[in-house]
Known about the structure:
The structure is a homotetramer. Chain A contains eleven helices and seven strands. Chain A has helices spanning about 45-50, 55-65, 70-80, 90-100, 105-115, 125-140, 145-155, 175-185, 190-205, 220-230, 235-260, and strands at about 10, 15, 25-30, 30-35, 40, 45, 270-275. The longest helix of chain A is centred in the last third of the chain and has 23 residues, at about 235-260. The termini of chain A are far apart. Strand 3 (about 25-30) of chain A pairs parallel with strand 7 of chain B.
Amino acid sequence: MDHDRSNADRGPGGIERRRRVPTGDEWATAITRTAPNEIEIRGYPVDELMGRLTFGETVYLLLRGELPTPAIGKLFGAVLVSSIDHGVTPPSTLAARNVATSGAPLRDSVSAGILAFGTYRGGDIENCMACLQEGLAIHRSGVSFEDTARQLLEKWKGHGPNPPGFGHRIHTRDPRAGRLLQLAHELELDGEHCRLLRVVERVINAMPGRTQHPLPLNIDGAIAAVCGDLGFDPDIGNGLFIIARVPGLLAHAIEERARHQALRRIDPKDAHYDGPARRRLPETRK
Amino acid sequence: MDHDRSNADRGPGGIERRRRVPTGDEWATAITRTAPNEIEIRGYPVDELMGRLTFGETVYLLLRGELPTPAIGKLFGAVLVSSIDHGVTPPSTLAARNVATSGAPLRDSVSAGILAFGTYRGGDIENCMACLQEGLAIHRSGVSFEDTARQLLEKWKGHGPNPPGFGHRIHTRDPRAGRLLQLAHELELDGEHCRLLRVVERVINAMPGRTQHPLPLNIDGAIAAVCGDLGFDPDIGNGLFIIARVPGLLAHAIEERARHQALRRIDPKDAHYDGPARRRLPETRK
Amino acid sequence: MDHDRSNADRGPGGIERRRRVPTGDEWATAITRTAPNEIEIRGYPVDELMGRLTFGETVYLLLRGELPTPAIGKLFGAVLVSSIDHGVTPPSTLAARNVATSGAPLRDSVSAGILAFGTYRGGDIENCMACLQEGLAIHRSGVSFEDTARQLLEKWKGHGPNPPGFGHRIHTRDPRAGRLLQLAHELELDGEHCRLLRVVERVINAMPGRTQHPLPLNIDGAIAAVCGDLGFDPDIGNGLFIIARVPGLLAHAIEERARHQALRRIDPKDAHYDGPARRRLPETRK
Amino acid sequence: MDHDRSNADRGPGGIERRRRVPTGDEWATAITRTAPNEIEIRGYPVDELMGRLTFGETVYLLLRGELPTPAIGKLFGAVLVSSIDHGVTPPSTLAARNVATSGAPLRDSVSAGILAFGTYRGGDIENCMACLQEGLAIHRSGVSFEDTARQLLEKWKGHGPNPPGFGHRIHTRDPRAGRLLQLAHELELDGEHCRLLRVVERVINAMPGRTQHPLPLNIDGAIAAVCGDLGFDPDIGNGLFIIARVPGLLAHAIEERARHQALRRIDPKDAHYDGPARRRLPETRK
């Protein structure tokens, strides 16, 4: 998979592009170039990235093809951090633990857990992104944010108990959602997607019956809005959740193997937490 | 899964620990505490981590249970960056692409790719970590690094063409390995594992026949040494590779769906790279 | 998971049913009862089934809850046999082989291969079953089979190059489809689904342009019609394909490990067949 | 993947073998030949097998390369039937159900469940086959079955609480094991592997302390012995378990989706059976 410098030309932004004339069966990839002693991630030598870009920034580069600004890197990192784990109760974590207790290697546990990021979970990011895109199309045709929100809510009726991006089994105020939107605002990266989402949140919770039972924005909704404003396509939404949650699945698989008996019966109702108590980041990290 | 503050006590380092008396079926987890409106990763509220720790630093916290120093965070991030992707030829990437071309969702592609991090690939990190640990035990009993290296090499004969951590299908000088060890040195985080590995490298390549055909240190070996000096157990080695490579699998699955025909026959020999040409990080990022 | 005989009563067909009063968290399963020294598959002791029902018949019992007649057992077995393998080119087989060449255990290979039974392959059975069901609803409202077929074909336009159940990458006359429908006919198990499918086949191929390029019925369409007439719900269609194809994936994973070099690059275009030449079943088996 | 008849020759048994001269990259497969309108499983046209071989017999053909005799077909079918399901408690079934409750397609559930056929479960067949092979090598060197059994038991000490093939979490007399060995005996297919296993069983249970607490032979041990006498290699053992159990995983995934709420918390301790009560095969099936 080497390439011929004589065919180089310059594409947009002055980026030199190597061209190779395709024959019948040839197919192309634009992600990573490997040759003896050379590995380039979207053109950047990987050894040059090591120690200079964070892992989150490199993930962004890999997926988008361009370096994130420091602000974008920070916000994108926060997106990943937000979803890194959610304890033992998600079906994905239980799938991973059940595979781990059978004695399988860690990768089997992680692989099984990923398969439980099904339609109802981890799929909300994509649905919400698609809805926000739809809403912005309506808005750009001249409809106010408020009326756009009402139109979207009307559409979503009957498609589930809650619109995508709202509600949660446990949280009445998802701490991750508020923090992500706040960070986007501080970094001046919140745009129309975030704005529309906020309006939808306001409109939903102004409806009759909602005063007693507010419907909170959840982290999938916040991620959807932030990623929309960062320019991601909706179909990548679930992918970001996978990247973020794999460390969590791994940690649970490792703990299952280390602390519990092989082939045990795992009842999530009997789980309790015995890890560190709540603690704060030292001042120097803030 | 709430907990009773009255049972709190203080463990090492003054960290308050919540205790709960286990009944018959109860089982414990020490990773993440979830309660209404609260999510704590090893005790730290996740919303507090968002925007303050990088994703790589949070992965470290999740796996080790404690915050990394900035230097450790930087080195650990470089470990993850080093393995983020390696183009279309690894069996894992081809497994992921074959699943993607069938029309399956992204998670199925990623899940399948992970399963190909088998014994021969991605398993090298663990093997190498275990070997280095074994070597350090020998060294601590009074044997010099040089003689320890020779003993290890003698043991590894017949266990494969190369000792774990050395050799590569493509690279004669793995750019990632040198960079990682250099960074560990700059950050003053290289210790006995790294030192032993360097001695093994020297001893191997001083052997007859190696002048023409040096046996390069590969990235798995470098990661093994660095993670050993960071205090990780060997069994976590493959897990780090999984976390690092999942974004790569995802990128390839996305590209497969976006650029190529569904249900196509994927011949890796016919792949070529048509992405950005080699480019350098701007000065401001270095 | 024992049960209390005193709560037994008799349900339809005189089958004794054990009842247990559910408490809050209780949930029920009706597939297999296990107790010390007892395993019952839909009520039948498994040791009684061994040697008396074939594996295919037991699969039917497991999925449908009742014993198949010998004729149904024969037809259902033929459904499974039809899809047991299709060589090295399907993406699922390549996914399995790529995992196998990485050194992973057989189950990882099989697991990865299954994930490539995606939307475009293995999903055709369900789509076709659903379409036939839709068509039969139309027919039962008074429309002739011929007009029903035309309505269905009109609906399917724009949903893909071929209607579900028709067309194949390789075969212009899928030998499995014809045989399955013939067997259903011989066993007098072909009903309205099969009849409608045959009419659709006739109508499609009477259309202009089809004389030169007939559109063959494929095995997914035949399986869909047969399973519809056997009373299966559409959502089980893909499940039958999984059961049938797992032995094929396993055989390929085993062969990959046994015959080929670890971590090899697998190019499907370079594969050729070197197994037994065509041979016939001995007369005694027919 | 066509082939050239002019290169045909005849191999052992008069079976015509097609030869193709391999070039550099070529690789071969001997399982299934596909060409336009032709699909041959180990040489037999698949449409010819449909309705004449059972699914279990076709699995045998696929894996072994030759047709089973009717007696072998019956015994092999019983091996598969024995392991088709074991209720909701195995970790594999719980992994499958957790994936199913997330809303994932059936194939994801089955795939996840397979990954939990780990070292401790489903791996016993292989271990036991390997041990029996080892024992038969000892026996063929002139040691009696009784002394061979004692040697094996001595070896297995410290390798786990029970020797492979013995013991069970639930059953004190595994009904499947006895039935399988009885069937092998009736069909005159039991050989040295079965004989050695029976001797091991006798020797174990004659040991002090075993009168009160007999150690039962389990189905994995019986399958191992039977498959050894059928000529299977040990490494295929786990593969047979996968083929057998996939229908069970599928049935549980289907039931989970059909009967229970999406994203529910699955506690195996709260499961009870509400399916058909114990019933007998009609006389005509025996």
